Amino acid sequence: QEIRKVVQALEQTAREILTLLQGVHQGAGFQDIPKKCQKAREHFATVRTQMESLKTKFPADQYYRFHEHWRFVLQRLVFLAAFVVYLESETLVTREAVAEILGIEADRERGFHLDIEDYLSGVLTLASELARLAVNSVTAGDYSRPLRISTFINELDSGFRLLNLKNDSLRKRYDGLKYDVKKIEEVVYDLSIRGLNKEAPVGVGGEK
């Protein structure tokens, strides 16, 4: 019951961060990106406080016994942290950096930590969000962003191809990545056909 209460508070904070970051998809949202990221980081201070509280609700050595209670919200928070870092620097956040943003450990041996599969799951959610951002960038008249997103997602896909994913739900999520790659490639292809992106070679994304 105590764990559930803290998890509900974390879910509420995650919703607030998500609502804030969804604003980048609106037309005027692109000008506001630094401000939105700064506000999101302020919300992560609340997340760290809530995580501190969660750590006290169960014995440190029983992390995996209760893991299901917070697994979903933790994956969502990983995605949100990854999205903020991407919007700030267009780079992929490391597991260590996410753990720091959330106020938890990266190493399993050190107690309440960020499980590697939760990290990977959050990163895959980021890919879907960026596919959506690529489409909305065009609507907002930002024609170079989809190309940068395409490069990033292709590198991400290459990284995932090196992994031997045993977890079924993670494997399923990874299968969705190829659709995100295809969706972004189609955006880049359409831009190049229309001559709106001089950097994009005609033919990116294959045949239409």
Automatic annotation (TrEMBL):
The answer to keyword DNA-binding applying to this record is: yes
This entry carries the following GO cellular component terms, namely:
cytoplasm; nucleus
Summarize the subunit comment: Ring-shaped heterooctamer of six TSN and two TSNAX subunits, DNA/RNA binding occurs inside the ring.
Which family is this sequence assigned to? Belongs to the translin family.
Name by which UniProt lists this protein: Translin
Q: What does this protein do?
A: Exhibits both single-stranded and double-stranded endoribonuclease activity. May act as an activator of RNA-induced silencing complex (RISC) by facilitating endonucleolytic cleavage of the siRNA passenger strand. DNA-binding protein that specifically recognizes consensus sequences at the breakpoint junctions in chromosomal translocations, mostly involving immunoglobulin (Ig)/T-cell receptor gene segments. Seems to recognize single-stranded DNA ends generated by staggered breaks occurring at recombination hot spots.
Task: Name where it mostly resides.
Answer: cytoplasm
Q: Where in the cell is it found?
A: Cytoplasm; Nucleus
Q: Which gene encodes it?
A: Tsn
Q: Name one GO molecular function term.
A: sequence-specific DNA binding
List the GO biological process terms: RNA metabolic process
PANTHER family documented for this protein:
TRANSLIN AND TRANSLIN ASSOCIATED PROTEIN X
Key words of the record: Cytoplasm, DNA-binding, Endonuclease, Hydrolase, Magnesium, Metal-binding, Nuclease, Nucleus, RNA-binding
S-adenosyl-L-methionine: is it a keyword of this entry?
no
Question: Can you tell me which residues bind Mg(2+)?
Answer: 129
| Record-linked InterPro entries | Translin (IPR033956), Translin_C (IPR016069), Translin_fam (IPR002848), Translin_N (IPR016068), Translin_sf (IPR036081)
Concerning CDD domains, the annotation shows: Translin (cd14819)
